[in-house]
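I would like you to help me understand the sequence and structure tokens below and explain how sequence relates to structure.
___
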Amino acid sequence: MTEYGGLLVKYLEVRKLIFLDQLGWHVSESDGMEFDQYDTPYCRWIVIHQFGEVLGGVRMVPTTAKCGPFSYMIRDAQMGLLEDIPTDILFFEAPVEHSVWEATRFFITDSVPAQQRQRVQSLLFLSMSETAMDNGATHVLGIVPALWARWARRLGVNATPIGAKFSIDGTASQSVLFKVSDFIS
């Protein structure tokens, strides 16, 4: 926190701009920042930035995390703890395994020019994969826009749908799983 606290605050402010202000999601906000019960010491925040300007980010949580009544977003949705996400989010019971991490709040800001978006997305996926591997994970699961297959192909990411398509605050979404080793060469 002493080394990157300012960057974390900027990251949470950008999350508010994207998920609350732009997308209109029903998310928590305080003091101009978006954060919730999953922003705990268990998680890792990956922030792609240039000279302190946040370009993109993602939050990662081990599926073994537990903080009060909460674990991780997909599992908690499946258990009926989150009213805005359906309980049938996965085709199977949500895993609680050291080898599986969850990625949420994945974003690229509008300030990233079109010709640099793929590079920022690639950096974000690579950093996410390295973080997962560094923490013993072999797989990452997450909720992505239902159009995920198009951008996944561009990035060389092999993701498998693991749940039916559903809507979160008007955004068509789907749960996916990918093997970390498929992305890191």
Remarks:
- The mean pLDDT is 91.
